[in-house]
Amino acid sequence: MRPLRASMSNSARSQSILSKASAEPGISPFNLTPAEARHVQEQIPPRVIRRDHLARLRTVAGADIALEASTGFAAVILYSFPKLEEIERVWSSGELRFPYVPGLLAFREMPLLLEAFGKLRQRPDLILADAHGWAHPRRAGMACHLGLVLDVPTIGCAKSVLIGKYQMPPIARGATTPLCAGEEEIGRAVRTRSGVRPVFVSCGHRVSLPTAVRLVLDCCDGYRIPKPLREADRWVKQLRSGKR
Question: What DSSP string describes 58-82?
């Protein structure tokens, strides 16, 4: 299927895709101080749905961002599910207005990601974010924040641990072990390919942890990183280097 790239002229479609962005009052402003941003994050965990609340999955979007000094590049690629055939890809770029503060990366990166999502012609049924969700010091990682703002089922799939401890999973593909903060299981270490390092899956919004693990594995095609995220990562790096 030939990829379709949306443009800023798709304002009506953008309004439709982002129509839920105001459905969660208080969590969508981004022109904040770090202290104000932490206060916003405190409002996120009670709103996150960590059970399955999904319609039939026909599409999945991979979202990633790359940075170059004070400029960010955001990429979103939409795939069919479960065949993982590309449907369309969109991107955005702009100045990063929020400082780098560990634990508050959503406020630095999400404005550009939301701009990119607003260019999609088709609303995704599921988002895979190259970020943590519930596995965050305040249980308010970018996958949770993004899922709430867009009101789309979202999964966090990160390459490294932000918080928590885990035992290395067995080497076989599909093996998992809990990622825990104290007594709470906040995510899972997931072996997506036999013998390679695990990825770290956590709830974003409207997807339970067992289902999140299964869907991440369903989106893998023989590599460590699920295809939607791997290709979004590859493309956003090309965008950063000036290749369109």
Answer: -EEEEEEEEEETTEEEEEEEEEETT
d(CA 130, CA 127): 10
- Record the tokens describing residue 171, joined without a space: 């080497």
**Cα(148)–Cα(154) distance, rounded to whole angstroms?**
9
Structural domains of the chain sorted by starting position, each given as residue range(s) with its CATH number in brackets:
32-240 (3.30.2170.10)
The pLDDT tens digits for 216-242 are 999 999 999 999 999 999 999 999 988
Strand, coil or helix: what is 35? helix
d(CA 122, CA 120): 5
pTM of the model: 0.89
For residues 146 and 12, give the distance between their C-alpha atoms in angstroms, rounded to a whole number.
Answer: 21
Q: What share of the chain is helix, strand, coil (3-state, %, to 5)?
A: 30, 25, 45
